[in-house]
């Protein structure tokens, strides 16, 4: 594939990226606005509760507290959704970066393959020219020997001996091909294979999460324990399919709470 084709394919894949990023950022801003509005409502309800707590009945207090708690839970859901969108946006950009790295590695491998192929072809061409010169020398010696005197025959035999030495040198040149093959074999292992390119390592500075100690990907959920050492978990690693309602604690924090 030529450089132009690699560039064209990559630009095609980037065509919808700005639209997707704009959509995600717009949704994140909308969720943030909703969460901020809820927090203002919660502040107002909390002030009202504190002012009237002494005059409220027990039932009224409970009702007000449940209302405030409900608003807090809703604000937390907005925050969690915003975090999920941020993770998806990061993965979206990271996918395109990996695609570019993969295409660059494949393109570099193709360039090296073409360079090695040209070197091999040039060596074989030089080898064939050497054989042709040796063959022409033998035939011309035979023609001169047929109509020559004994003195000329002696000279011809002397020339043929020299030609024979040249022939031995020509035979030795047939070892060029194995040497070229060995040189190619020594270079090829260093060329990234397309299958290996897909397994390129992630950014070593990227933080890890969850019980599996892997980077963020897919659906994730945050532990409601503010002191949780891990904080974020992949749905699959903690046996979740959908986000549970209310508070959720990771397996470690759940076990610690039971002690």
UniProtKB/TrEMBL annotation:
PROSITE patterns: ZF_PHD_1, ZF_PHD_2. CDD domains: PHD_ING4_5 (cd15586). Residues 207-256 form the PHD-type domain. It comes from the Eukaryota. Residues 117-126 have a biased composition (Basic and acidic residues). Residues 117-175 are annotated as: Disordered. One of its GO terms (biological process) is regulation of DNA-templated transcription. The keyword Zinc-finger applies. Residues 163-173 have a biased composition (Low complexity). One of its GO terms (cellular component) is nucleus. Keywords: Chromatin regulator, Metal-binding, Nucleus, Zinc, Zinc-finger. SMART domains: ING (SM01408), PHD (SM00249). The record marks 209, 220, 224, 232 as: Histone H3K4me3 binding. Zn(2+) 2 binds at residues 223, 228, 250, 253. Zn(2+) 1 binds at residues 210, 212, 234, 237. Pfam families: ING (PF12998). GO terms for molecular function: zinc ion binding. Its main location: nucleus. InterPro entries: ING_fam, ING_N_histone-binding, Zinc_finger_PHD-type_CS, Znf_FYVE_PHD, Znf_PHD, Znf_PHD-finger, Znf_RING/FYVE/PHD. The keyword Flavoprotein does not apply. It is found in: Nucleus. Component of an histone acetyltransferase complex. Interacts with H3K4me3 and to a lesser extent with H3K4me2. The PHD-type zinc finger mediates the binding to H3K4me3. Component of an histone acetyltransferase complex. Belongs to the ING family. This is Inhibitor of growth protein. It comes from Pediculus humanus subsp. corporis (Body louse). The gene is 8237788.
């Amino acid at each position: 594939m030529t450089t132009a084709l690699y560039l064209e394919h990559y630009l095609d894949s980037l065509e919808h990226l700005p639209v997707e990023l704009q959509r995600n950022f717009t949704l994140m801003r909308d969720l943030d606005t909703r969460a901020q509005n809820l927090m203002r409502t919660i502040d107002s309800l909390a002030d009202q509760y504190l002012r009237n707590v002494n005059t409220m009945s027990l039932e009224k207090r409970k009702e007000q507290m449940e209302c405030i708690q409900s608003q807090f839970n809703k604000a937390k859901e907005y925050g969690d959704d915003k975090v999920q969108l941020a993770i998806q946006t990061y993965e979206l950009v990271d996918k395109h970066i990996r695609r570019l790295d993969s295409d660059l590695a494949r393109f570099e491998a193709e360039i090296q393959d073409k360079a090695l192929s040209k070197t091999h072809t040039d060596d074989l061409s030089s080898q064939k020219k050497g054989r042709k010169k040796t063959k022409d020398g033998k035939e011309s010696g035979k023609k001169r020997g047929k109509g020559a005197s004994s003195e000329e025959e002696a000279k011809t035999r002397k020339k043929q001996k020299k030609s024979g030495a040249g022939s031995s040198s020509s035979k030795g040149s047939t070892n060029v091909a194995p040497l070229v093959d060995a040189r190619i074999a020594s270079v090829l292992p260093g060329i990234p294979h397309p299958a290996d390119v897909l397994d390129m390592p992630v950014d070593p500075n990227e933080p890890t999460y969850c019980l599996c100690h892997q980077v963020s990907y897919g659906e994730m959920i945050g532990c409601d324990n503010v002191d949780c050492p891990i904080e974020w978990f992949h749905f699959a690693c903690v046996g979740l399919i959908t986000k549970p309602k209310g508070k959720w604690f990771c397996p470690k924090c759940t076990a610690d709470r039971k002690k």
